[in-house]
Write a structure and sequence with these properties.
mainly alpha, 305 residues, 76% helix, single chain
Protein backbone atom coordinates (compact mmCIF):
# COMPACT_ATOMS: atom_id res chain seq x y z
CA UNK A 1 0.00 0.00 0.00
CA UNK A 2 1.28 3.46 -0.85
CA UNK A 3 2.27 5.63 2.09
CA UNK A 4 0.67 9.05 2.44
CA UNK A 5 2.62 12.08 1.30
CA UNK A 6 2.90 13.36 4.84
CA UNK A 7 4.44 10.21 6.28
CA UNK A 8 7.82 11.78 6.95
CA UNK A 9 7.02 15.47 6.79
CA UNK A 10 6.09 16.07 10.41
CA UNK A 11 8.82 14.22 12.27
CA UNK A 12 11.00 16.82 14.02
CA UNK A 13 14.78 16.77 13.75
CA UNK A 14 17.31 18.19 16.23
CA UNK A 15 18.30 21.74 15.39
CA UNK A 16 22.03 21.04 15.31
CA UNK A 17 21.48 18.32 12.71
CA UNK A 18 19.34 20.67 10.64
CA UNK A 19 21.97 23.39 10.93
CA UNK A 20 24.72 21.00 9.83
CA UNK A 21 22.63 19.97 6.83
CA UNK A 22 22.05 23.63 5.89
CA UNK A 23 25.80 24.26 5.98
CA UNK A 24 26.40 21.29 3.67
CA UNK A 25 23.65 22.52 1.35
CA UNK A 26 25.32 25.93 1.23
CA UNK A 27 28.48 24.26 -0.05
CA UNK A 28 26.44 22.42 -2.68
CA UNK A 29 24.78 25.63 -3.84
CA UNK A 30 28.18 27.35 -4.02
CA UNK A 31 29.62 24.48 -6.04
CA UNK A 32 26.60 24.75 -8.30
CA UNK A 33 27.51 28.37 -9.08
CA UNK A 34 31.03 27.33 -10.06
CA UNK A 35 29.69 24.57 -12.31
CA UNK A 36 27.16 26.98 -13.83
CA UNK A 37 29.94 29.41 -14.71
CA UNK A 38 31.73 26.56 -16.52
CA UNK A 39 28.58 25.68 -18.45
CA UNK A 40 27.86 29.32 -19.36
CA UNK A 41 31.39 29.73 -20.71
CA UNK A 42 30.87 26.77 -23.06
CA UNK A 43 27.63 27.54 -24.84
CA UNK A 44 24.87 27.01 -22.27
CA UNK A 45 22.35 29.81 -21.72
CA UNK A 46 20.73 30.68 -18.39
CA UNK A 47 17.27 29.48 -19.43
CA UNK A 48 18.74 26.21 -20.72
CA UNK A 49 20.53 25.61 -17.42
CA UNK A 50 17.41 26.36 -15.36
CA UNK A 51 15.25 24.16 -17.61
CA UNK A 52 17.62 21.18 -17.60
CA UNK A 53 18.44 21.26 -13.89
CA UNK A 54 14.75 21.59 -12.93
CA UNK A 55 13.46 18.95 -15.37
CA UNK A 56 16.12 16.40 -14.46
CA UNK A 57 15.56 17.01 -10.75
CA UNK A 58 11.79 16.60 -11.13
CA UNK A 59 12.21 13.32 -13.07
CA UNK A 60 14.79 11.94 -10.64
CA UNK A 61 12.70 12.75 -7.56
CA UNK A 62 9.58 11.35 -9.26
CA UNK A 63 11.42 8.07 -9.83
CA UNK A 64 12.53 8.06 -6.18
CA UNK A 65 8.95 8.63 -5.01
CA UNK A 66 7.65 5.80 -7.17
CA UNK A 67 10.34 3.40 -5.93
CA UNK A 68 9.57 4.42 -2.33
CA UNK A 69 5.86 3.84 -2.83
CA UNK A 70 4.87 7.39 -1.88
CA UNK A 71 1.43 8.37 -3.10
CA UNK A 72 1.40 11.22 -5.62
CA UNK A 73 -2.23 12.09 -4.98
CA UNK A 74 -2.78 15.52 -3.50
CA UNK A 75 -5.84 17.76 -3.13
CA UNK A 76 -6.29 20.32 -5.90
CA UNK A 77 -5.76 23.16 -3.44
CA UNK A 78 -2.40 21.73 -2.40
CA UNK A 79 -1.37 21.36 -6.05
CA UNK A 80 -2.23 25.00 -6.71
CA UNK A 81 -0.20 26.07 -3.69
CA UNK A 82 2.76 24.00 -4.87
CA UNK A 83 2.44 25.63 -8.29
CA UNK A 84 2.53 29.07 -6.65
CA UNK A 85 5.75 28.16 -4.82
CA UNK A 86 7.18 26.90 -8.11
CA UNK A 87 6.41 30.23 -9.79
CA UNK A 88 8.23 32.05 -6.98
CA UNK A 89 11.30 29.80 -7.35
CA UNK A 90 11.29 30.37 -11.11
CA UNK A 91 11.13 34.13 -10.56
CA UNK A 92 13.95 33.91 -8.00
CA UNK A 93 16.18 32.04 -10.45
CA UNK A 94 15.62 34.63 -13.17
CA UNK A 95 16.07 37.61 -10.84
CA UNK A 96 19.30 36.29 -9.35
CA UNK A 97 20.87 35.56 -12.72
CA UNK A 98 19.70 38.97 -13.99
CA UNK A 99 21.36 40.61 -10.98
CA UNK A 100 24.62 38.72 -11.59
CA UNK A 101 24.53 39.89 -15.22
CA UNK A 102 24.39 43.55 -14.08
CA UNK A 103 26.42 43.56 -10.87
CA UNK A 104 29.67 42.03 -9.65
CA UNK A 105 28.85 38.59 -8.24
CA UNK A 106 29.87 39.72 -4.74
CA UNK A 107 27.37 42.58 -4.70
CA UNK A 108 24.61 40.47 -6.22
CA UNK A 109 25.10 37.71 -3.63
CA UNK A 110 25.33 40.22 -0.79
CA UNK A 111 22.02 41.79 -1.76
CA UNK A 112 20.35 38.43 -2.33
CA UNK A 113 21.50 37.16 1.07
CA UNK A 114 19.11 39.56 2.76
CA UNK A 115 16.45 36.86 2.21
CA UNK A 116 16.54 35.68 5.87
CA UNK A 117 15.48 39.19 6.86
CA UNK A 118 12.69 38.99 4.28
CA UNK A 119 11.53 35.67 5.76
CA UNK A 120 11.57 37.05 9.30
CA UNK A 121 9.75 40.25 8.31
CA UNK A 122 7.05 38.49 6.28
CA UNK A 123 6.48 35.90 8.99
CA UNK A 124 6.22 38.57 11.66
CA UNK A 125 3.93 40.69 9.48
CA UNK A 126 1.60 37.77 8.77
CA UNK A 127 1.34 36.79 12.43
CA UNK A 128 3.44 33.65 12.05
CA UNK A 129 6.64 32.57 13.74
CA UNK A 130 8.61 35.47 15.17
CA UNK A 131 12.41 35.65 15.00
CA UNK A 132 14.11 34.99 18.31
CA UNK A 133 16.29 37.60 20.00
CA UNK A 134 19.31 35.52 19.09
CA UNK A 135 18.33 35.66 15.40
CA UNK A 136 17.54 39.39 15.45
CA UNK A 137 20.89 40.10 17.07
CA UNK A 138 22.94 37.99 14.66
CA UNK A 139 21.34 39.11 11.38
CA UNK A 140 23.17 42.49 11.24
CA UNK A 141 26.38 40.78 12.37
CA UNK A 142 26.11 38.28 9.51
CA UNK A 143 25.38 41.03 6.97
CA UNK A 144 28.36 43.04 8.25
CA UNK A 145 30.55 39.97 7.90
CA UNK A 146 29.31 39.46 4.36
CA UNK A 147 30.11 43.08 3.49
CA UNK A 148 33.72 42.48 4.59
CA UNK A 149 34.07 38.99 3.16
CA UNK A 150 32.67 39.92 -0.25
CA UNK A 151 34.63 43.19 -0.30
CA UNK A 152 31.45 45.08 -1.15
CA UNK A 153 32.91 48.43 -0.13
CA UNK A 154 35.88 47.85 -2.44
CA UNK A 155 33.61 47.05 -5.36
CA UNK A 156 31.58 50.22 -4.80
CA UNK A 157 34.73 52.34 -4.42
CA UNK A 158 36.11 51.00 -7.69
CA UNK A 159 32.84 51.89 -9.38
CA UNK A 160 32.34 48.74 -11.47
CA UNK A 161 28.80 49.75 -12.41
CA UNK A 162 26.87 52.96 -12.08
CA UNK A 163 23.56 54.58 -12.84
CA UNK A 164 20.65 52.60 -14.22
CA UNK A 165 22.65 49.37 -14.41
CA UNK A 166 23.41 49.48 -10.69
CA UNK A 167 19.80 50.29 -9.78
CA UNK A 168 18.45 47.53 -12.02
CA UNK A 169 20.93 45.00 -10.64
CA UNK A 170 20.08 45.83 -7.03
CA UNK A 171 16.36 45.69 -7.84
CA UNK A 172 16.73 42.23 -9.40
CA UNK A 173 18.79 40.99 -6.42
CA UNK A 174 16.19 42.29 -3.97
CA UNK A 175 13.51 40.67 -6.10
CA UNK A 176 15.38 37.38 -5.83
CA UNK A 177 15.55 37.76 -2.05
CA UNK A 178 11.84 38.57 -1.84
CA UNK A 179 10.70 35.69 -4.04
CA UNK A 180 13.03 33.13 -2.43
CA UNK A 181 12.11 34.22 1.09
CA UNK A 182 8.42 34.09 0.22
CA UNK A 183 8.81 30.63 -1.33
CA UNK A 184 10.52 29.23 1.78
CA UNK A 185 7.94 30.77 4.10
CA UNK A 186 4.98 29.55 2.03
CA UNK A 187 6.53 26.09 1.75
CA UNK A 188 6.53 25.86 5.53
CA UNK A 189 3.04 27.36 5.90
CA UNK A 190 1.24 25.67 2.98
CA UNK A 191 3.12 22.46 2.27
CA UNK A 192 4.45 21.45 5.68
CA UNK A 193 2.35 18.26 5.71
CA UNK A 194 3.51 17.18 2.25
CA UNK A 195 6.50 14.85 1.81
CA UNK A 196 9.55 17.03 1.15
CA UNK A 197 10.50 15.03 -1.94
CA UNK A 198 7.03 15.53 -3.38
CA UNK A 199 7.27 19.26 -2.66
CA UNK A 200 10.54 19.38 -4.56
CA UNK A 201 9.19 17.39 -7.51
CA UNK A 202 6.13 19.59 -7.92
CA UNK A 203 8.10 22.82 -7.58
CA UNK A 204 10.83 21.79 -10.02
CA UNK A 205 8.20 20.67 -12.54
CA UNK A 206 6.65 24.14 -12.52
CA UNK A 207 10.07 25.82 -12.82
CA UNK A 208 11.03 23.54 -15.74
CA UNK A 209 7.80 24.33 -17.57
CA UNK A 210 8.18 28.09 -17.11
CA UNK A 211 11.89 28.20 -18.02
CA UNK A 212 11.48 25.78 -20.92
CA UNK A 213 8.58 27.75 -22.38
CA UNK A 214 10.55 31.00 -22.10
CA UNK A 215 13.58 29.39 -23.76
CA UNK A 216 11.58 27.94 -26.65
CA UNK A 217 9.79 31.25 -27.15
CA UNK A 218 13.19 32.92 -27.57
CA UNK A 219 16.37 31.41 -28.97
CA UNK A 220 15.54 27.88 -27.91
CA UNK A 221 17.57 25.56 -25.70
CA UNK A 222 21.31 26.15 -26.21
CA UNK A 223 23.23 22.98 -25.35
CA UNK A 224 26.98 22.83 -24.54
CA UNK A 225 29.42 23.08 -27.43
CA UNK A 226 32.09 20.80 -25.93
CA UNK A 227 32.82 18.26 -23.20
CA UNK A 228 33.66 20.91 -20.60
CA UNK A 229 30.26 22.49 -21.14
CA UNK A 230 28.54 19.13 -20.68
CA UNK A 231 30.56 18.56 -17.51
CA UNK A 232 29.46 21.93 -16.14
CA UNK A 233 25.81 21.32 -17.06
CA UNK A 234 25.87 17.86 -15.51
CA UNK A 235 27.49 19.04 -12.30
CA UNK A 236 25.19 22.03 -11.82
CA UNK A 237 22.17 19.77 -12.37
CA UNK A 238 23.29 17.19 -9.80
CA UNK A 239 24.47 19.76 -7.25
CA UNK A 240 21.43 22.03 -7.52
CA UNK A 241 18.94 19.15 -7.66
CA UNK A 242 20.41 17.55 -4.55
CA UNK A 243 20.59 20.84 -2.64
CA UNK A 244 17.12 22.18 -3.47
CA UNK A 245 15.44 18.84 -2.75
CA UNK A 246 17.17 18.52 0.61
CA UNK A 247 16.32 22.15 1.39
CA UNK A 248 12.61 21.51 0.81
CA UNK A 249 12.84 18.53 3.15
CA UNK A 250 14.85 20.09 5.98
CA UNK A 251 14.01 23.79 6.29
CA UNK A 252 10.24 23.45 6.94
CA UNK A 253 10.98 20.89 9.65
CA UNK A 254 13.37 23.09 11.66
CA UNK A 255 11.73 26.48 11.01
CA UNK A 256 12.59 28.91 8.22
CA UNK A 257 12.50 32.10 10.31
CA UNK A 258 15.23 31.32 12.84
CA UNK A 259 17.35 28.94 10.73
CA UNK A 260 17.50 30.48 7.25
CA UNK A 261 20.32 32.88 8.32
CA UNK A 262 22.55 29.80 8.53
CA UNK A 263 22.43 29.66 4.73
CA UNK A 264 24.30 32.97 4.58
CA UNK A 265 27.42 30.85 4.80
CA UNK A 266 26.99 30.13 1.07
CA UNK A 267 29.12 33.09 -0.15
CA UNK A 268 31.79 32.13 2.37
CA UNK A 269 31.87 28.59 1.06
CA UNK A 270 32.16 30.05 -2.45
CA UNK A 271 35.28 31.92 -1.27
CA UNK A 272 36.69 28.67 0.10
CA UNK A 273 35.98 26.83 -3.16
CA UNK A 274 37.62 29.63 -5.16
CA UNK A 275 40.67 29.42 -2.88
CA UNK A 276 41.00 25.63 -3.25
CA UNK A 277 39.95 25.16 -6.87
CA UNK A 278 41.05 28.43 -8.48
CA UNK A 279 43.93 29.52 -6.28
CA UNK A 280 42.28 32.86 -5.48
CA UNK A 281 43.46 34.64 -2.35
CA UNK A 282 41.55 36.75 0.17
CA UNK A 283 42.53 40.00 1.86
CA UNK A 284 42.77 40.10 5.68
CA UNK A 285 39.49 41.99 6.04
CA UNK A 286 37.76 39.34 3.91
CA UNK A 287 39.05 36.63 6.22
CA UNK A 288 37.74 38.59 9.23
CA UNK A 289 34.34 38.88 7.55
CA UNK A 290 34.30 35.17 6.80
CA UNK A 291 35.08 34.37 10.43
CA UNK A 292 32.25 36.69 11.55
CA UNK A 293 29.77 34.81 9.37
CA UNK A 294 31.01 31.36 10.38
CA UNK A 295 31.02 32.32 14.06
CA UNK A 296 27.49 33.69 13.79
CA UNK A 297 26.27 30.52 12.12
CA UNK A 298 27.81 28.41 14.90
CA UNK A 299 26.17 30.66 17.50
CA UNK A 300 22.76 30.38 15.81
CA UNK A 301 22.96 26.62 15.42
CA UNK A 302 23.81 26.14 19.10
CA UNK A 303 20.54 27.67 20.26
CA UNK A 304 17.54 25.72 21.52
CA UNK A 305 15.07 24.32 19.04
Amino acid sequence: MNSPPSATAQRPIPRWIGAAVLVVLSFLFSSNHVAARLAFDHGVTVLTAVTVRSAVTAIAVLALLMVSGVSLRLPRTTLLKAAAVGILIAAQSYCLYAAVARLPVALALLTFNTFPIVIAFLSWLSGGERPSRRTLFMMPVILSGLVLALDAVGWIARGPVTGDTMLAGVAFALGAALTFGSAMLLTQAWLGSVDGRLRSMLTMTVVAIIAGTAALAGEGLQLPVDNEGWLGLGLLTVLYGTAITALFVVLPRIGAVNNSPIMNIEPISAMFIAWVALGQTAAPHQIVGALMVVGSVIYLSSGKR
